[in-house]
Amino acid sequence: MNIAEWLHGLGLERYAQAFHDAEVTPEVLPELTEDDLRELGLPLGPRKTVLKAIHALALSSGPTPVEVRASAGQPKFPLPSEADRRQLTVMFVDLVGSTALSSGRDPEELRDLIQAYHNTVASEITRFEGHVAKFLGDGVLAYFGWPRAHEDEAERAVRAGLRISKAVAALTEPTGAALAARVGIATGLVVVGELIGEGEARERSVIGETPNLAARLQGLAEPGGVVIADSTRRLIGDAFIYHDLGTVPLKGFPGPVQAWLVMGEGAAESRFDAQHGMSTTALVGRDQELALLLDRWEQANGREGQIVLLGGEPGIGKSHLVRALRDRLAGVPHTRLSHFCSPFHTNSALYPIVGLLERAARIRREDPSKEQLDNLEAMLTLATDDVRASAPVLADLLAIPTGERYSPLELSPHQKKERTFQALLEQIKGLAAKQPVLAIYEDVHWADPTTLELIDRAVDEVQRHSILMIVTFRPEFVPRWTAHGHVAALFLSRLGRRQGTAVVDRITGGKLLPQEVLDQILAKTDGVPLFVEELTKTVLESGLLRDRGSRYELIGPLPPLAIPTTLQDSLMARLDRLAPVKEVAQIAACIGREFGHNLLKAITPLGEDALQLAINELLDAELIFRRGVPPDIGYSFKHALVQDIAHESLLKSKRQQIHTRIAAALKEHYPARAEMEPETIALHLAEAGLAANAVGYWLQAGRNAAGRSANLEAITHLSRGLEALKACPEGPERDRHELALQTAIGGPLIAIHGYTAPQLGTAFSRAHALCYELDDTNALFATLSGKYIFHFVRGDYGAMQSLAAEARLAAERTKDMALELGAHRLAALTAMHAGDFLTARAEFETILSRYDPDAHRPAPVHYVHDPKASALPYMAIVLWILGYPDQALRTSRAAFEYAAELNQTNLTAHVAVYGGAGPAELMGDVAAARAHADAIVDLADQHSLNYWRLSGLILRGWAMAQEGDAEGGLALMRRGLNDRGGLGASWYQVRYLCMLASTCLQLGDGEKGLTALAEAKDLAACHDEHIWEAEIACIGGELRRIRGAPADEVEAYLQTALDVARRQSARSFELRAAMSLARLWRDEGRLVEARALLASTYGWFTEGFETSDLLAAKTLTAELAKL
Fold first, then answer.
1. 324 vs 470: CA distance, rounded Å
2. d(CA 212, CA 90)
3. 729: cis peptide before it, omega within 30°?
4. What SS3 string covers 318-358?
5. In this structure, are 424 and 389 located in the same domain?
6. How far is CA 338 from the centre of its chain?
7. Using CA atoms, how far apart are residues 166 and 177, in angstroms rounded to an integer?
8. Domain count along the chain
9. Stretch 314-320: mean pLDDT
């Protein structure tokens, strides 16, 4: 009996080292008491488990020869009481030519032959801790990954398959002919462990295509062959040598299936090399750790031998760090000795040293023993002149016959071990005398006891030699060498967000992922580099993304990311090690990554004492962490992916039952939480298959999120509500829910995707139609406004007029004041778009005079439709255009005050762009415009408001150019204009193009200015927009003037600007056109006309004399008066 294996079977392998250090043997085991176990460091739960198992041992007896075959098929670990979902590697073995074997043969003789075959196959399967599921005559079905998973099930299955092939070939018929087997292996998701059948036929089933695939692949193999599925091949990397069989048609499968023939073990030195090859992603976030290793290397070079104990959880990057050190030393003279411990050889004495010697001496077992011995001696000469002293003992270690070259070793086992240790240590010291040695011992948590004893000796020996030893291990291993002064312990921590993002960038080749995808990757992987790499690769292969050159974009809504197949066995192994309390972990996983003790207690069938014992065992295993203090104790899973695997391993039916209980418990015991976090209730109801019941909770969750400007979350909640509606029966109730959801999603869609997003138009169009179907005038106010704004920003003047007229008629019909104010708003915006500024002002003034915040302020989710919030910013622009700068500034301040009162992010951005930066730019206040632009960009970055961010960047670029950074400012403006145009936005795009053209005018670049202006003119004409008509003509005249166009051509443009401005009562534009004409006439000597034009235009103004245009007009008037 092996103590370490016995503890492993109990899920307590983490205590194996303590048993070994205390020299607990199988003979001593039955004598252990609870006090003994407490002294060994076992907590209460594991102590009880060990004592029960010892008692069971005392009651059992060893198998008789008759029982051997039967016991070969028995599971090493207890079978779970319930079925679960998991990734499983399935093996199917078939005896070749069994029909011919049975022909004419005595039944007893055939029975003995089949029994020998079954025992041989079962023995190799259990060697690698697989589970013999069923003997099918001459076939054997086996599972790797159930009832207990290991992190490397696919590799275990393939290794077992190769050994089965070899072992069966060693069996012979009575005639002397050798037997042969075919092996097929496949990996995939299954439901396993459900009891089916009755009586003698009762058995555990496995459901899924994986068993069928393994059986079909077996049929492809030649006698002695092992054929595996592509799903298995992807998990084992280069651990083996393969022959590509291509895609082959298989009965029962819809299309050809990729298959691989396994030829033998691969040449990769380590598990890390087998999975990653020689090319790995660059090391991220380990600069300090690598620097420590390099520092210790320098010390070792000075004959001050060093040891670094490198610890960390699986996937944290231990092997990657060692590889990075190897790469840094690639050009430095040294000898590298790499030792690799194996989970398959934890009881094979000196296994990692044997592997190193065989690789270094190029020993191949198929070579003659003389050649093997020659190679060993040649290797030994590299370190010593006295080969004969060490060759015999190391040849014995490697099982190489020495023949007559050396006398037989006549040593006791203890003497042989001492001589072996001496030879191995002299070898490494001899190598170090010639050049520094880097000795690496990887994964010593799997080391056999003799190897650990050799490391004990080496730790003492290396101190006086040029040797750097690096020992890597996982947390369950407790190194016993930390007290030495030349030993440094280094435990790798998880990566931070920035470092995790860098790992993602390496995998994507620098292409940006959508923010929500990146966020989910980083949240689920908890800073474990392997998890980050594998989940990123899974996302890239998932079909969720579209490659856009420098970035990826989502094709549709982002679902929860799937657990990578490469990690499923490892994660499941962590759960299976805690089999007695696994169900508690699964129930907790249904609650979420974080869960409270009281809620868990409310939904588990366990009593308080039993539940606490289970939780303690989960805590001891570090599967979960405790947080908080009584009475509010809670817990969280150490890894999000462990929570995922615990949740997904439940059968859907069982999972739905648990989620139903959770939703009920939350509503009954935690009503305040249910009100604050309705999305939690909705999620559990949806997971329970009660989607229709979740609709109202998704709606409230979306409204809550929108109310606090969490727009991405709002869109997610409301979209899930719309999806859940599909489970509701058709009728008015369903339509009312849909109307509420479609209306509520509008604001968040605007905030994230802008006013021109196609999904926004779809949402408001559907809501608009539902309003009439349900005769809902209250919702009509919001939906008409939303639908109008969609067309307004896109510049669809016809739709704007139609919707404004519809709003007016609806208001008259219903006598609803809120709808009436909404109608005035649409009329004002339509008039503004048409350049009818007097009408626009009148409509805005009507809104502001009649608006009652108590009666007309919409719910927070509808703030985007607030009549006053919309009127004030645009009123500021209209007042400036009409020639009232001071009133415009007062209105601007009022807009900001009202926005602060509402405190809604999208509205704040709206006011900052149109009520702040807009008037500031028109009045030439560069400093104010820059301050507003920076605030807009900061707000947009904080809340993912891409539409507003682009406006902020354009305004920032304009201010930068005015401040002297012409190149940077113009580049920023052009980039913002291009991206904003790409969204389909027309509203205010003409103004931004005019700003670009006027900036080019200031810089004297007439050609680029005219190009921008031509785009502005075309866009305005396309959408029948007349707001900036006078400005376009005025800037066009000035640009032509600096390019040397004839005076009459320039004058025609400026006169058009003047005429348009006067027709529109646009006094500020009129002043600009008058100043441009006055300068032109001045230069032509037409001073009387110039003075008269400017005097009449400037003389009209009664305010705003400190603004840039009026100051310029005053200066020009004085200048003309002197001429």
1. 13
2. 9
3. no
4. HHHHHHHHHHHCCCCCCEEEEEECCCCCCCCCCHHHHHHHH
5. yes
6. 34
7. 15
8. 4
9. 89
Phi, then psi, of 852 in degrees rounded to 5? -120, 110
Q: Strand, coil or helix: what is 260?
A: strand
Tell which of 230, 247, 271 closes a domain: 271
Say whether 879 sits in a helix, a strand or coil.
helix
Helix axes 732-753, 691-707, angle to 10 degrees: 40
Helices 449-461 & 351-360, crossing angle to 10 degrees?
Answer: 70
Say which residue the tokens 């995707």 belong to. Answer: 753
At which residue do the structure tokens 């069966």 appear? 168
Residue 350 falls in which region: left (phi positive, over 0), alpha (psi -120 to 50) or beta: left
CATH number for the domain harbouring residue 31: 1.10.150.50
In a domain, 311, yes or no: yes
Q: Six-digit token pair at 388?
A: 């004969």
Q: Which of 722, 813, 800 is nearest to 772 (CA)?
A: 813
Range of the domain at 266: 77-271
The pTM assigned to this predicted structure is 0.67
Token pair for residue 681? Answer: 């209730």
Separation between Cα atoms, residue 605 and residue 839, nearest integer Å: 71
pLDDT at 72: 43
* Residue located via tokens 């040891």: 307
Query: What's at 33, amino acid-wise?
Result: T
84 and 202 share one domain: yes
3-state secondary structure of 168: helix
Least confident stretch, 96-100, 170-174, 706-710, 1110-1114: 96-100
DSSP labels for 1073-1095?
HHHHHHHHHHHHT-HHHHHHHHH
Helix or strand or coil: residue 731? coil
Pairing of strands 203-207, 139-144: unpaired
Nearest-angstrom CA–CA distance, 75 and 62: 16
User: Do the Cβ atoms of 285 and 499 come closer than 8 Å?
Assistant: yes
pLDDT in tens, 295-312: 999 999 989 999 999 999
Cα 746 from Cα 35, distance rounded (Å): 67
The answer to whether residues 527 and 459 belong to one domain is no
Per-residue pLDDT band for 402 (boundaries 50, 70, 90) equals confident
Given the structure tokens 């070259």, which residue do they identify? 405
Distance of CA 923 to the CA centre of its chain: 47
Ranges of H-type helices in 60-97: 68-72
- Provide the 10 A C-beta neighbour count for residue 329: 17
CA pair distance 306, 239, nearest whole angstrom = 32
Q: Which of 462, 493, 524 is the last residue of a domain?
A: 493
Same domain, 478 and 523: no
- Do 422 and 477 belong together in one domain? yes
User: Each residue of 348-398: pLDDT tens digit?
Assistant: 889 899 989 998 999 887 888 889 999 999 999 998 888 888 999 999 988
Cα of first residue to Cα of last residue in the chain, in angstroms, is 115
Tell me the per-residue pLDDT of 13-53, one tens digit each, with 9 for 90 and over. Answer: 778 888 887 888 877 787 788 778 888 888 877 787 787 67
- The Cβ of residue 767 has, within 10 Å, a number of other Cβ atoms equal to 26
Shared domain check, 466 and 333: yes
Is residue 569 within 8 A of residue 145, CB to CB? The reply is yes
742-783 confidence digits (pLDDT tens): 988 988 888 888 778 888 888 988 988 998 888 887 777 778
Residue with tokens 């441009």: 1076
Domain match, 240 and 297 both: no
CATH number of the domain where residue 458 is located: 3.40.50.300
* Residue whose tokens read 């929570």: 643
Do 504 and 483 have their domain in common?
A: no
Q: How far apart are CA 171 and CA 97, in angstroms?
A: 14
In a domain, 388, yes or no: yes
Cβ atoms of 282 and 320 within 8 Å: the answer is no
Q: How far is CA 56 from the centre of its chain?
A: 46
- The identity of residue 406, as a single letter, is Y
Q: Kindly state whether residue 480 falls inside one of the protein's structural domains.
A: yes
User: Is 663 part of a structural domain of the chain?
Assistant: no
Q: Which residues, other chains included, contact 529 with Cβ-Cβ below 8 Å and sequence gap of 6+?
A: 284, 285, 315, 316, 317, 320, 495, 503
